[in-house]
Amino acid sequence: MKKKISILLMCSLLVPVLQMENVSAASALDVVINEVAWAGSLDSSSDEWIELKNNTSSAIDLTGWSILDDGSSTYSLSGTIPANGYFLIESNESAISTISADSVVTLSLANTGDSLVLQDASGNTIDTVDGTGGAWMAGSNTTKSTMERIDSSASGDSNWGECTSGNGNLSSAGSSILGTPNSLNSVSTSSSGTTVSLSISDSSPEVGDSITVTAAISDVTDLFSYGFDIDYDASVLDFQSASEGSFLSVSSAVQTAFNAELQDDTEGVLVIGDARTQTEKTGVSGDGTLFTIQFNVIGGNGSSAITIDTSASFIANTTTDIEANMENTSITVLSGAEQVSNPQSAEGTDRYSIALAWTAPSAGATSYRVLRLNQEGDYEELGTATGTTYTDSNNIIPNITYTYQIITIKGVSESSAVSVTGIETRGIKGDNNRSDRVDGRDLEALAQHYGETYVDSTYEDLLDTTYDGSINGSDLIDVGINWAVTYSE
What we know:
Helix content: under 10%
Number of helices: 3
Largest sheet: 6 strands, mixed
Distance between the termini: 147 Å
Shape: elongated
């Protein structure tokens, strides 16, 4: 009989021990209050929710846990929060209509602020938010943005920020939530130092240049997959290609699935993702290159950012997202070619020449193109100048008004044209052979080419004294009017 009693006594003593083993022990900040939607949503002020985050690598049973609201309300919890995962407590099942709640309790968070204390089943304080019960540290009752924890492993009133961009979830009537339920906070940083950084091959390119953006990761543990939205100014950059870095694959023996495409095939948002597709689900640790992107610089002056959209981007191990610091980059497109100013013309030093001059643009120039309007109404390039003067002595006919264009070249960039006109008066119309007298030789030359037009290979510019693209009767009239006239300086 004593033996039976002893066995029964031992069993009765084991029962509470076994029950206690079902309640996972936790230390301070193992689970934290990670995000608070204290203002509700644009649809309803009652769409309140609280997100918990597990900072450990083990699942934790929340049965018997509770959140004390200013000491006056107690929200009882049950269920399990996965390793490094999230747990959503919603005021009603549709507070976040696109995600099922892990727990539904009648939340009533004051807009003026509340003290929230997370306690485990033994009544131990695991995390405290707004311990004084004063105003919320972040969030907005106007935009309904949530209050997000910056570093999930740290505490303090300064460790909170206002959500800057949502992750696509909707509230009770379909409005967008300015919050990040069940994903990395938009203001999140990594206490471990894990960082994804963008760097650029040339931070001061010119229009026409090609640049490479490199995404590198450092101090990461067990990276298994990632997804990034890379935002850029489509008026400045044109996407060319993206390539996988070596970090996830490590070697040719490791299979990965890398994808990179423009969102809706439209410049401005590049969607990139990669994951290790091995049978054995393992990650990789350390530092390395995730991917590179090639862009062409197509326009714009001044600075242009290339950024990671944190609301749509993540890095993850095999079970959950990894907190990381995200560092963006930017380029400053060097000023493109600017127009010249103050264009002028004058008769050149030598007869039958027109001298052009202009003021260089403030941003400088590599060279200048000089063009002249031809007989057909098209601009033909005469040549280039490295300085701010150019002399045209290309078959100039006296008393014809010529129209010129000057174009600035800077690197591979060209400015729009600036026009100026010029005239040469030192000579006689009809003196086609430039003997300083109009006579039979000029008539003979005109007759030899009479009827020819600008497109004919035998057409001669100096015989077309009316500069209309045709050697005809109007040019013969110039010879007749000035017959036997001589020129003297």
